[in-house]
Amino acid sequence: MMKILRNTDVFYSVIVFGALSVVAIIAAWIFDDRLLIPVIILCLGFTAVHYATLIFRYRKITELTCNIDKILHGEENISIEEYTEGELALLQSEVYKMTIRLREQQSKLVEDKMYLADFLADVSHQIRTPLTSINILVSMLSEPDMSFEKREQTVHKLYGLLSRIDWLITALLKMSKLDAGTIKFHEERVTMQQLLDKACMPVRVPIELHGQELTVEAEGELECDVAWSCEAIGNIVKNCMEHTPDGGAIKVIGKDNSLYSEIIITDSGSGIASEDLPHIFERFYKGRSSEDKGGFGIGLALARMIVTGQNGTLKAENYSGGAMFTIKFYKTTV
Length: 334
Known about the structure:
One of its GO terms (molecular function) is phosphoprotein phosphatase activity. This protein is an alpha+beta fold. Helices cover 60% and strands 14% of the residues. Strands 2-4-5-7-6 form a 5-stranded mixed β-sheet. A two-stranded antiparallel sheet has the order 1-3.
């Protein structure tokens, strides 16, 4: 009882109710002493009911407080749905909503933490491999009896490895900006031919060195962020080049209709393994056919992020002659 009376609201309520009861008893004694006993009985009854109600509500509030404390300390199997009375029910409803929100945020934080840990592990692994090679090559350069030709070849390999690391870091920065939503795509109208020619320009020389044939066919116009779209298309064409044998063919076709602008990129390689298709756009994923290609597994992931960020879709599949990638930029929201 004393524990409940330490609550100031309960204490003042009991005092007020007791004072009213005393006033009622005195009034009954003054006006008609025959009413004294019934009034005393009624006052005691009302006081008992009032005090019992206070005890019940106090216990419910205490129980709710304990449950909230358990939830804040990490317990998940706590239910606070059984409260059904008046103001306490409203409080319970709001606390329940807050609890669900906190649990969702906690779950999201755990997922983000796991994703960050995996991401850092992947980045460390991807950078460690070329750094190990660089370390070996640098130690080779310190040998005084190395011939000029060998030294020149080693320096060329170093430049290649440093370029790979630079490309990886640049791509990761772009992906992080896209993840954070800080990239604003600026759409502009451009002909399909101009877009595809600009996107394929950086890979034309490597394609020629591999003896491959690149064909570009385009018609119509489209609205897109030219720089970012060229990045996405170029990454896909580069991927096709890496998985097409020397002397093979890569074809890029662009066309436009009233619903969407479509870009189809095909190669004459071995296609995509069935077990790799569901994961080909995942960050750092490299299929069995990519083990000896030296890639990082983020070019296609970056391409998909760029396309979807512009209200588009990117799909990979196999056809009779190799792999096929289909980009669609929709003119209305899908």
